[in-house]
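TICKET #2291
ISSUE: user wants both folds in one file
ATTACHMENT 1:
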Amino acid sequence: MVMEQDWTSSHLRSQPGVAHIKAQYLTTKEHFHQELHTYKESLQNSSGKASCKSKEDDDTPAKKICPEAVANAAEEWPPGTGTSTSQQETQVVGQLSSGEPGEVFGRPMGKVRPEVPVDVMEESAEAQDGVHEPIKTIKLLEIAETKGDKSDIKQKRARGQNKHRPHMKPSHYDDISLCSAFWQGSEGECRFGSGCRFEHDIETYLKRKLPDLGSQCPNIMAYGCCSFGLTCRFFGGHKECITPISQNAPLHKGIAVRNLLNRELQQRLRKHSELFTRADAYLAAMGKTRRGLSKSSVISSSVPNCGDSFVHNEPLSFSFETTANNVGSANFQPNGDVHTMGALTDEDVIRLRQPEKKSVDFRNKLYLAPLTTCGNLPFRRVCKRLGADITCGEMAMCTNLLQGQTSEWALLKRHHSEDVFGVQLEGGFPDTMTKCADLLNRSIDIDFVDINMGCPLDLVCHKGGGCALLTKSLKLQQIVQGVVSVLDVPLTVKMRAAVMDKSNLAHKLIPHLREWGTSMITLHGRSKEQRFTKLADWDYIKQCVQVASPVPLFGNGDIFSFEDANNARETDVAGLMLGRGALIKPWIFTEIKEHRHWDISSGERFALLKDFTCFGLEHWGSDTQGVEKTRRFLLEWLSFLCRYIPVGLLERVPQRINERPPYFLARDSLENLMASQNVADWITLSEMLLGPVPPHFSFLPKHKANSFK
C-alpha cells in the first residue's frame, strides 16, 4: 500500500498540469464510472423503478429518475451546514444504505492504479488553458464518424465551440399549449376565437399537461403571485386567488426585476422613430471634424502592430470638448437641425460636467466578470449572496439593442439585490455605440456602462468589436468620447493586454483612455491569441497600474483562491475581476473576504444549485418553457462546476485554475456525481432539481472542451 501511494505521488508529479490529490482518493476512469452507475441504479431501485442501463449501452444522454426522488431532492434538501454528508444523502434522496459513504465505495483502493485523461498526459505545461480537454461528445462524435475514421477523431484535441450543437426551443417540449387567455381560469376570452392555434379546453389541457414538480411555487414564494396560472409546473401549491404579477410589484425589501423593455420603446426602435438627440449632436460634430482631416492623420488599422501608432501618429483630437456644454445642448446646431420633442428642460440646455456625473467607488471591490451565457441574472444572484460587490450583465451587442430585440434586452435586466450594476456593450462603430449608450442612459437603471475590448471570438472581432478595437485607435477614440458625452454615469473599459502574443499594447492605450474620460479600466493579462492558454501576466498588469494612475485599474486572470487574490493585490490594482474562478467555485468571493479555504460539502454545493434553480424559475418562468430554459443554463454552469476538487482531497492546497483533476472517488456519492465530466451525469443532477427531462431532449456544452462521452 505504501509503495502504491509512493508510485501515485511520483506519477502525478510527472504529469504537467494535473492537480495533486491524496493517494487514497485516486482511481481509474472505469472504476469511477462504475461507482456512479451503481449509485444511480440504487436511486431507481429504491423507488421501485427498473434499473437504468449503463452509459456505454445507452444512446441517449438523458437518464430518467423517478418523480418521487425528484420531489425529495427538490423539497427536502436541508442546509449544508451542520449536517454530515451521510445524513444529507439519507435525508435528500433517501436511496442509499444506512452505512457511511465509505461503505458504498468499499473496494480496496491500494491496488487501484490512478489514471488521468490521455490528453492531459500528452500536453506540456505551457499548453494548459485551465479547461478540460476531454474526448468528443456524443453528437460531435457521430458527426465526426461520418467524415473519417473514429480512431483518428479520438486522438484529435477538442477545441473551440460547438457551433452546430442541437437546439430545440423550450416551447416545443409541450405536447399541448394552453391559450394565454385561459391561464388564470375559464373566465378568459381569446381575441382570436376559433382561429387560435392554442388549446382552449382546460380539462383537456390538464389531462395532457406534464406532472407538477412540487407544491411550492417559486413565484408565489418570491412575489406572492404567479402569472403562469394553470401552466405553472407547481400549480398544485397555488392559492385560490392568483393575480398576474405587476412590473412594480414589491419583492421583499426592494422592487421587482428592473430594466424591462417597454413595448412602446420597442415599437419605436423597430420603426426607426426613436430620437437620439445627444448622440446625433456628437456624431454631427464628429463628421465636421473628420471632413477637415487629411488622410495621413487617420491611423490605419492594417498595421501589424498598431500599438506603435500612438507613438508615430497622435490620435485624433476633436476641436471641442466632449464634456462641455456645447455637445447635446439646444443651442448647438450641428450639420442639420436636430429635431426634438416636448418641453425644453434645464437638462437639455445645460449638460453635466464630468465631475457632476454619477460617481461609483470602484476601489477594493470584487467584480464578477460579464460572462456570456453563464453570467445570467440567477447566477449573479448566487454570487451576490456569496460576496460579489460589483456585477455586470452579459455582453450585449449594440446593433441588436437598437433593433429592439427582446432576447438582447433581456441581458440588461437587473435584480434589486445588485447594488452596483452595469451593462457591457459590444460594437465597432461610433454611431451605433453612441446611440446605444444614449438610449440606455435614459431607458434603464444602471450604475455604469462597460465597453468590451477583450472578447477574442472571431464572430465579434471580424465585425470590428471586442479585441479588434485594440488595433483601431481612431474608432476607439470616437467610440469612447462619444459614449462619455451622452452618459450621465461612469464609463468603464474591459480590455486584453494585446492582440498578438508578446506584443503588448495596453500600456500605450491606457493613457489615452484616461484622457478620453474613462472612469475605470479592467485589464485581462492575456492576448487575444492566447485566449485562455498559459498564465495571465500579472507583472504586466502591475506596469499598467502605474500608467493608468489616477484612474483605477482592475486586474483579471487566473484568480482561483484567496492566496491568488492576495498575490494579485500586491500589484496595487484597485480591485479584482473574477471570471472562470467564479464559475468553477462561486464561493471564491467568500474565501477572499474571509481569507480561508472553504472545504465546502456536497450538501452545501447542492444547496447552491437549488438556489440557482429557484432563481431561474423566478426569472425565466415556472411553466414548462421556463423549466427547460432553467435546465439548459444549469447544465451550462455544471460544465464548469465539475472542475472543482474538494479541498479535503487535495494533497497540495490550493488548486490552481490551470490544473486538471485526475479521476478520483470523493467522500460521498453526491460529491462523485458532481465531479463527473459526463453530460449524462449533469443531466441526472438537473433531474434531481427539475424533474425528468422531456422526450427528445438533447444537450451539448457550448465549449467542446467541457465534456466527454
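ATTACHMENT 2:
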Amino acid sequence: MTAQVDYLAVVFTATSGTSGEWLGSDEKETVQLMWQLVDVKNKKLGKVNELRIKPDLSDSEEKQEDEVEESTTEQHNSGADCVTTAENLETALNLFHLQLTNEVNSAGTGTSVCLCADGQLHIRQVIHPEAASKNILVPDCFYSFFDIRKEFKKHFPASDLKALNVQNMAESLGLPNEVAIVDPESILSPEVAVQQVQTMTSIVLALLSEPFCHIFSNPEKVNDKFESGTCSKMEKVSDNTVIRARGLPWQSSDQDIARFFRGLNIAKGGAALCLNAQGRRNGEALVRFVSEEHRDLALQRHKHHMGNRYIEVYKATGDDFLKIAGGTSSEVAMFLSRDDQIIVRMRGLPFTATHEQVLTFFSPEDGLKEMCPVSGGREGILFVRYPDGRPTGDAFVLFSCEEHAQNALKKHKEILGRRYIELFKSTAAEVQQVLNRYSSAPLIPVAPAPLVSVLPAMPLLPPPGTLRDCLRLRGLPYTASIDDILTFLGEFIHDIRPHGVHMVLNQQGRPSGDCFIQMTSPERALMASQRLHKHVMTSQRGQNSRYVEVFPCSAEEMGLVLMGGSLSHTHTRTQRSGTGLSPPPCKSRRLSPPSYSFAAAPQVLTAEAAAALYPPFGQMLLAPRPLPPGHGYYPAASAQLYMNYSAYYPSPPGSPTTIGFFPSPSALTSPGGLVRMPGLPYPTNGVKDIINAVQGYQYSAEDALVHAPVHTQDPSRTLLTQPKEWSPGEVSVLSSSLIGQSNGGDAPVMSLPLVNKPAGQFLDLSLL
C-alpha cells in the first residue's frame, strides 16, 4: 500500500496484567479494546468505541467476578461514546471488524482503512499471540497497521524510537497532554485508555495538518503464515536476529514454532529444530527473525506457554543458526525447492528399501478413502546416506498438502519389509541438519590440524588399521570377570596374545560392559566373531547372563578407545555414539597403568632456527622435553581432543599398542624393591587378596611375591617384593589400599610362581 489511506482506526488494547512497555509480556488476557476512526481526507474524528471482553476464568474466579461485577460496572464509567461487552476474544474481534466496517461504510467518503497503534505491542504482542494460543481466526484488518511512533520519527529523526510514547510525542507537537503517567506493572484503568486513544488521534491530525502534511503509506505487515525454505552456509546471518527456544515438545514442528511466535515475522526458512547425537529432537530450536526489533519482541515471550510447557527464549548467534540450518548439498536444494510442500521424516527403513517400496507404503489400501500420495513420485523421496553411499535408514518424503501429510502420519509404526517405520512431521532445516550430520561423520574422529602449519605434520592418532586382529566384546554383564570372558571364548582362548584382555571402565571405575581382546591372527578373530556373536555369557559372581555382541576390529581402533576415544559407529549396521569411558588414570591413581618412559623426540629444526621462528613456543613444539623413567605420560587435553580416558584391566603391558603418537615402551630396567604391607586381615585368603590389591601393576616372571609375618606381636604385616616396573608413587598408593577387615593372626610363607601355557602366562592359583 503506497497511496494515502482513506481512514485510520486508532486502536488501543489493555490486558488484565501489565501495561506500557511490558504489555503482553505476562500472557494475560485482553480485557479491553478501544478505537476511534479518523477521516484522513476531511481530518474528522469519529466516536470513541470501547469493547469490554470477559476473560476466561475458572469456577472460583467466576464466582468472585460475579460478586464485584455490578460495582465494577458502575465504577468504570470510562467516558467512551459507545460501550459494548463481548463474551470472549473471538466474539470481540469479529464484533470489532463488523462495527469498523459499518462505520466506514456509513461515512461514505472512501473504503480503504488501516489500523494505527502506539508501537508494536498492541498488535504483535497482544492480539495475535492470544488468538494463536486459543486457535482463533484473526480478521484481515489486524495483519497490517501503522506504528504512530515510526510515522512521528520520520519528521523528528533525532528522537529515540524506544523512548517515544504518547506523552512526549504530544509535547513535541505542542498538544495538550492529559494522559496520566501509569506504572507499567499496574493494570490500566478504562479512563486512562480513553485518554490514550484521544491523544493518539490528536497526534494523527497534527501530522496530517500543516506543516507536516504527512502521508500514511507502507504500513507494517504481519505474516499470516510461515514460509519454509533453505539456507546456505555461505549466507550471512546477523547475530541480532536469532534466538534459541528451549523446552519445546518433542513432536513440535516449525509450524508450531511459528504459531508460538505469531505476530512476529520469521525469516523464510528461519525455524530450525535442533537434534541430539542420536538424530532425535532435543527440545530446542533456533529461530531467525527479519529484524532486530522482532528479535527483541521475541525475547519478551520468555517462559510463555506452548500447550502445557513453558518455553525459554534466549539470544543466539548467526553462526549457531548456520550450523543447524545451513547446507551446501545441491540434492537437498533441489528436494526443498518446491513451494507449499509438507515434509515427513521416515526413520527405521530397511537398508535395502527402494523408491518403489516407499511409494507402495504410502499408497492407499483397498477399501480406504484416506489418500496420501507422495508429491512428485520418486523425486519427492530423499534417502539419507553416509559419504560412502551406504543407507542410514532415514528418508524424507514430500506431500502436497496438510491433509495428505496427516493421513501419512497415521501410518506411524506400520511395517515395511520386516521393520516398523517411525514417521514424524519434519522441516527443511531438519533435512539440512540430518544430511550435514551423516555426510560429515567419520568412522573414527580425526585429530585437529597442527597448531603451526609450516611445521611437518605429525599425526596425533594412528591411521585406521587394516589388520583386524582384535575382538571387541560389547554388552558384557557388569559382574563379568576375566575367567568369565575366557570361558565365553572357549576354544579361542588359545588364540589370545599374552596380556591381551583389556576391559574398559566407566567414569566410576566400574566395568562399562565393553572389552577388547588381542588375537594372534585376523582369521581367528573373524572366526571368533562369527561363532560367538550374540552368544550368552554367564557371570559366576552375580549369576546373571546377557548376550554379547562380538565384532572384529584393528589394534589402532582398540588403542583409540583405550586412550579415551570413541568409535562413531561400529562396523556393523548398529550405530553407537560412544562407550562411556573412565576418567584419566592420573586422576584415579589406583587404576593407573605402570610407568612408561620415552626417548627424546628428535628435533625437526635446530634450536637456533626454532628460536628465530617461534620463540619460545616453537622450541617447546619442536623439541619435547624427554621424560625421565618412573613417570607415566599421557598427551595433554589440548593435544588430544578425544581423551575421555580409559583404565587398563587386568594387565597393561600389552595395552594399547601405541600411546598417542609415541611407540610402545620397551622393557624397563629400574631396580626392584621391597614393599611393606601392614594391617592385613586375619583370617585372610592369603596371596589371592594381595594379588587383587596390586592388580594392574607390572611384574615380570622372575619376581616373587612373599606373604610372611615379620613381627611376633603383629603378625598381620606383610613383605612384598616390589616389581621392577613399579614407581615410588605407585608403591605409596598400595600403602593406603584396604584388603578385607584388619585382624590378628599368622599366615604361611608362600611363593606364587607363574606358569607358561600355550595361550600365554597365567597365574597358578591352585596353591591358594
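RESOLUTION: both attachments delivered.
EXTRA DETAIL ON ATTACHMENT 2: The first helix runs from residue 59 to 75.
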